[in-house]
Amino acid sequence: MSGFFKSSIGRKVAMALSAFFLMFFLLQHFAINILSVFSADAFNEVSHFMGTNPLIQYALQPVLIFGVVFHFVMGFVLELKNKKAQGMSYAKNNGAANSSWMSRNMIWSGVAILAFIILHFIDFWFPEINTKFIQGDWSGTMEGVEGFRYHEELTHKFHSHIRTIAYVVAFIFLMLHLLHGFTSAFQSMGSTAGRKKTLQNIGKAYSIIIPLGFIFIALYHHLKYVLS
Amino acid sequence: MATLDSKVPKGPIKDKWTDYKNKINLVNPANKRHIDVIVVGTGLAGGSAAATLAELGYNVKAFAYQDSPRRAHSIAAQGGINAAKNYQGDGDSTYRLFYDTVKGGDYRSREANVYRLAEVSANIIDQCVAQGVPFARDYGGLLDNRSFGGVLVSRTFYAKGQTGQQLLLGAYSAMNRQIARGKIEMFNRHEMLDVVIVDGKARGIIARNLITGEIERHSAHAVVVGSGGYGNVYFLSTNAMGSNATAAWKIHKKGAYFANPCYTQIHPTCIPRSGDYQSKLTLMSESLRNDGRIWVPKNIEDVTAIREGRKKPTDLSEDERDYYLERRYPAFGNLVPRDVASRAAKERCDAGYGVNATGEAVYLDFASAITRYGKEQAKIHNIENASKEKIYELGQAIVEAKYGNLFQMYEKIVDQNPYKTPMMIYPAVHYTMGGVWVDYNLMTTIPGCYCIGEANFSDHGANRLGASALMQGLADGYFVLPYTIGDYLSDDIRTGEIPTDTKEFDEAEKEVTDRINFFVNNKGTKSVDYFHKKLGKVMWNKAGMSRNAKGLEEAMSEIKAIREEFWKEVSVPGSSNEMNPELEKAGRVADFLELGELFAKDALMREESCGGHFREESAEESGPQKGEAKRNDKDFAFVAAWEYKGEPADAVLHKEELEFKDIELKQRSYK
Amino acid sequence: MNLTLKIWRQKDSKTKGQMVDYKVTDISEHMSFLEMMDVLNEQLVNSGEEPVAFDHDCREGICGMCSMYINGEAHGPDRGITTCQLHMRMFKDGDTITIEPFRAAAFPVIKDLVVDRMAFERIQQAGGYISVNTSGNTQDANSIPISKHAADEAMDAATCIGCGACVATCKNSSAMLFVGAKVSQYALLPQGQVEAADRVQNMVAQMDLEGFGNCTNTGACEVECPKGISLENIARMNRELMKANL
């Protein structure tokens, strides 16, 4: 089996498996974040549960981190191998004649998403780890804020124009990445379902709705602040 | 005059091959490891022979000029492969296949060889299925058959329109298995340039590495040539660009007799030439003639108008059209055999009725078939008072289902929609029945040198039936040669490896390098293609579909003149120690320039019409068959095997008399 | 029509190459692309220059020998055809046409537009066959019924002509479509299923060893394939490999 994951196909299968995991995570992440638009309390409750439940914090969180890191590292490893396989490049190449921009530029949409994740980690994840694991504060509260702190922290981040724009741009790249990645993952897993209309439509819906939803959340909080 | 020993075993025809196999000498498996065999050419014959010999335990060295054995031109065969399986229960048998093949060959093939071919044909299908060849199947999961080329049973197995490709890939996969085991050493992009004879036996070859230009010596205990036919002597043919006669011609020059060079098959349904730049011709399946009607305009004024674009073929009324096959052959109409259809098209075009700019095209019209099918469909679907357009639409769907891929291919090449306007077709050189003379063992007149597949002469007589070429190639390679070669090699178990540092190899290599050096150093003014095209024109005009003594005599002297000019004026750029396609072509054309003359000489000698060879002097003079081919069994029931004596014109004729014990000779009639 | 050709010229595998401009005149729209190249070469031979080396043989789209990258696409701008079936009517008078060899690290250039595709040979030698002796003593061809559907699908995979357009087109120079087609043909037939596990493992291992890239599922190979080999064959190969490893 270890031989399998060293083969070119095995690596693609591993990419697809981590992609499925990440797409599931994204869905879950979105479901929670959208709560912030409708109800600050509900958002806070769920966030606190997620942030303090030991199973999630000690079991699922490391898996998630591994999944994210693996998907990126493997993506770069494969890209390097592919570049090497390519040899000399063409003087004239008409890629648009036979494939979509998204499929040809997964590495670049991936790099954009990576840059976003770094920003995202600085914004949210590092402070969370610091509060909980270094300072040992698992209360979920903050000075000057009534109840839980999560909704306040979230909305605060979207005061900045630049950050909001960065988020919107990143989600557009995420959309492009998903538009190819969703069905591609099925193909890598050896399923022809990704080539059937139904799954292509589901893929399209997922790839557009989720990033648009995130954009909506970011703009909602930003405009709410700007207009108030 | 010497007589040739065909070594046909005694006994009744149906037992010959079995008895023979029971009695021949075998080589024990341990000894096979010490015996080397060279196979030149990796098409159906060469590829299957190489795989089988390696499997038996011989060390095989296989040579192909392409970059992979899978690219040999056997791959282009479309229709199918015959086998006397009688899966359809329509009365097929080994005898019937044998009979059809001999009769189809116009009684100019060797009975015993043909019977053996029919006998092993069923094994070929079993073998190929086991190898994973995806033959067409019916809904019950059993193998499907189609009927083909004017025989009365359905015995043709097929894989869509790519039967040759699939069979070749089967043989190629068997080769790959042996290459992986190290039993075949594969030399891709290598061309055999001479055979080496030691003590009267073929013991090796000189080959050129086409990438580096290096001249290599390869020794073996036997040499097998399966290098295909020589149709490219006409320059334009349906053969691949690289198809050549060099290997066959080199062994001929070293002592192998060349048999019946004048037997050429000219296929009637090819896409016509569009101009002088044309490099090759494309064949469309013969099945088109089942529904297409062939015609040219009746009036020469209409021909001119069409050529000048003032009229379209669809403008001509029925009265203004000459359905010349239906007119001349009311019984068979558009379904006359290949040679008859081809000659009739040439006759009309020579009379000035050709319908395209080159004057070499006739129409193949599907309009009446479309209307006929359309009316039928309208009835089936209960459409009353269907409009003309509706009928046409319904009919077109049927024609599309039957011939869609061919129509599409035609449209890609010609840029005309054959549903709207008639197709244009013209005959083209397709296959050569003649070739290196071999005995029952497939051995040439050089001991230890064998010749298989289209390169030999043995099974098709003067004309080949459809779907028989694939059968012959695989029969020779899988099932015949591997037995017969053992009989010869059993004497070689103590010989040991053949050294290549002997004077015979020195001499052969010197001959080859001298010729190459001549080409690259010659300060000529004309390209190789110039000469090849010139040769092709002479061959086509004077030794083409119909031949006469005067034309053939002229052809001989004209070809000789072209050859002399070639050796003075040919220009080959580049050097010998690199990849040099012009140099490769020069060598091949030099050989064609000799073969072409022998071809004409053979055609001149054969003062009868048989199969693909039509002599204008030998036609029926009266009666209902007036103008049709007339065979002369009294004087010409023999194989003409030519011995090389320097100039092609000096070649010496040896006759192998043909005896027909199991079949009665009859004249063909299609009126 | 009159055309400007930008053609890759390279003396041999060791020498560096470059694009060279040529002019051809009076090209008929009925010519095939390779006949246009013949005209150029005749022109070069007559002026004592070395003609452009390119692979070609059957000129009817079946042998898989021809292999040019024309205006940024394998086998040129038309679909479902090889270069030899491409006709000049796809171009306009005055066009500039860029002609390059198939590029991939695993397909080194031999000369000009000729590339070395021996990697494909080695992949097939690694397992592209059914281990049956060619003795003819096999069972009767009709003894194993094969469903028409499976036979047709195997045939579709088997129509691959091994030209290498998939590799040339792929931004990763991946050979998955080629290998997928080969693996599929045998995996779909009962005769081939006996050795299916070993076959797919060996062929994929050889493919990786040859230095072909990975599959990003862009689908470009399927679009450019002259024989319309489907991406489903890649999915099938992936399945076969997973199955072989479980």
Describe the structure.
- The complex is a heterotrimer of chains A (228), B (671) and C (246).
- Chain A has a single domain, classed as 3 helical TM bundles of succinate and fumarate reductases (Up-down Bundle).
- Chain A has helices at residues 2-6, 8-38, 40-52, 54-86, 101-104, 106-134, 150-157, 161-188, 197-227.
- In chain A, α2 crosses α9.
- Chain A contains 9 helices and no strands.
- Chain A is globular, with a radius of gyration of 20 Å.
- In chain B, the strands form 5 sheets. A 5-stranded parallel sheet of chain B has the order 5-2-1-9-17, sandwiched between helices. A 5-stranded antiparallel sheet of chain B has the order 11-15-14-12-13. Chain B has a 4-stranded antiparallel sheet with strand order 16-10-18-19.
- In chain B, 59% of the residues are buried.
- Chain C folds into 2 domains: 3-111, Beta-grasp domain (Ubiquitin-like (UB roll)), CATH 3.10.20.30; 117-245, Orthogonal Bundle (Fumarate Reductase Iron-sulfur Protein, Chain B, domain 2).
- In chain C, the strands form 2 sheets. In chain C, strands 2-1-5-3-4 form a 5-stranded mixed sheet. Chain C has a two-stranded antiparallel sheet with strand order 6-7.
- At the A-C interface, α2, α4 and α8 of A face α7, α8 and α9 of C.
- Chain B: Residues 532-670 form the Fumarate reductase/succinate dehydrogenase flavoprotein-like C-terminal domain.
- Chain B: Residues 36-470 form the FAD-dependent oxidoreductase 2 FAD-binding domain.
List keywords for this structure.
heterotrimer; A: 228 residues; mainly alpha; 3 helical TM bundles of succinate and fumarate reductases; 80% helix; B: 671 residues; alpha+beta; Flavocytochrome C3, Chain A, domain 1; Methane Monooxygenase Hydroxylase, Chain G, domain 1; 5-stranded parallel beta sheet; 5-stranded antiparallel beta sheet; 19 strands; oxidoreductase (chain B); FAD/NAD-bd_sf (chain B); Fum_R/Succ_DH_flav-like_C_sf (chain B); Fumarate reductase/succinate dehydrogenase flavoprotein subunit (chain B); flavoprotein (chain B)
Topology:
The complex is a heterotrimer of chains A (228), B (671) and C (246).
Chain A: H1 2-6, H2 8-38, H3 40-52, H4 54-86, H5 101-104, H6 106-134, H7 150-157, H8 161-188, H9 197-227
Helix pairs in contact in A: 2-3, 2-4, 2-8, 2-9, 6-8, 8-9
Chain B: H1 16-23, H2 29-32, E1 36-40, H3 44-56, E2 59-63, E3 81-82, H4 94-104, H5 111-131, E4 156-157, H6 163-181, E5 184-187, E6 190-198, E7 201-209, E8 215-219, E9 222-225, H7 246-253, E10 258-259, E11 264-270, E12 293-297, H8 300-307, E13 321-322, H9 324-328, H10 338-353, E14 362-365, H11 367-380, H12 388-414, E15 423-432, E16 435-436, E17 449-451, H13 469-489, H14 503-521, H15 528-542, H16 549-569, H17 581-605, H18 633-636, E18 638-643, E19 652-657
Parallel strand pairs in B: 1-2, 1-9, 2-5, 9-17
Antiparallel strand pairs in B: 3-4, 6-7, 7-8, 10-16, 10-18, 11-15, 12-13, 12-14, 14-15, 18-19
Chain C: E1 3-9, E2 18-24, H1 33-46, E3 68-70, E4 73-74, E5 96-101, E6 109-111, E7 114-115, H2 118-125, H3 148-158, H4 165-169, H5 176-187, H6 190-193, H7 196-209, H8 220-224, H9 232-245
Parallel strand pairs in C: 1-5
Antiparallel strand pairs in C: 1-2, 3-4, 3-5, 6-7
